[in-house]
Specification:
The protein is built from 12 helices and no strands. It is mainly α and 359 residues long. The protein folds into 2 domains: 99 residues, no CATH class; 228 residues, MetI-like fold. Helix 5 crosses helix 7 and helix 9 runs antiparallel to helix 12. It is elongated, with a radius of gyration of 28 Å.
Amino acid sequence: MGYGTYIGFRLVNFAVILVIITLTTCAIFDTAMTRILKAQIAEQVQQDVMNWVKYQQQHGRMPTQEEINAYREDRLKIYYRRYGLDKPAWMRVFYRTWDVLRFKFGKSVSGLITYRGSRDVATIIFGYLPNTIILFTTGAIITMVIGIFLGLQMAKRAGGKLDRAITTFAMVSYSLPMWWTGMLFIFAFSFGLKVFPAGGMHTLPPPEDPILYWLDFLWHLALPLITLVFVSFGGWAYTTRSLVLGTLQQDFVMAARAKGMPERKVLYGHVLRAVSPSLATMCILSVVNSMWGAMISEAVFNWPGMGRLYWIAIEANDLAIVIGLTYVSTFIWLMALIIIDLIYGLLDPRIRVGIKVTR
């Protein structure tokens, strides 16, 4: 099997898993969504009936109870047809799955969650996503750079002062929840030292000058970003140290040292290349995970990101947004796994199980 066939196989596998997960999600939520839609339709029909009766009275006639009931039934049929409630359950699940696969999530069910006045679920999700990327993805990248650099330095001087200090720090910081650390930092730097704002993305009202507007945004971004990096970089450094130390004991490293190769070239040219598949996996998964933020942490910093959106949607019982978030997260996660497989094949052909490498 060639590399192109391998890629095709992985893409087919991606599509099959995505369809199965989406179909299962839509089937699970069908009963609840049907119940919510029927309740909302009943409220809307009642409002329509009241408006119709009022309109008839303004034109000099009072409709009979039979006419009111007939109008109510007609409105119910119209709304049921519009939202597919006149079809069997299996058909509703099928059509909803097909729409979700094409990123057509419909409107916000509760109507309480909007983005710039729009109730379209896709607009809401992709409107909140950049806020989380700015905070958590930026923090993840900074954490990876600092952690990998420090991990290499720790491995070079294993047992030294730097190694012992960061190892101790990693054991402590990795056990600290980000939201709890964020609260401590808010008390210290916002209410105590008054260096950073306590939360939000902008001062209210935000500055009108574009330069001041972005400086104000960076000022609000600083404290949650510092908190995220503070909690996470120690674990990255210790993990990188462990990977590098394990590789330093391999025969090819000892052979390179026996040949008199400089230690820097051994570390960066041989060891780092050998552990690069594992580091690449950690980096990609960290970036993907960062796109969904953290519910409690975003609530602590009042940051309008994906985690907070998920929490609000659950509280509001807005299943359309929950289904949309589930699908988008599944789609990105599966794409990340494919990218990891492809990077593995490029970095280390031995990992392409079942692939015959030809020259």
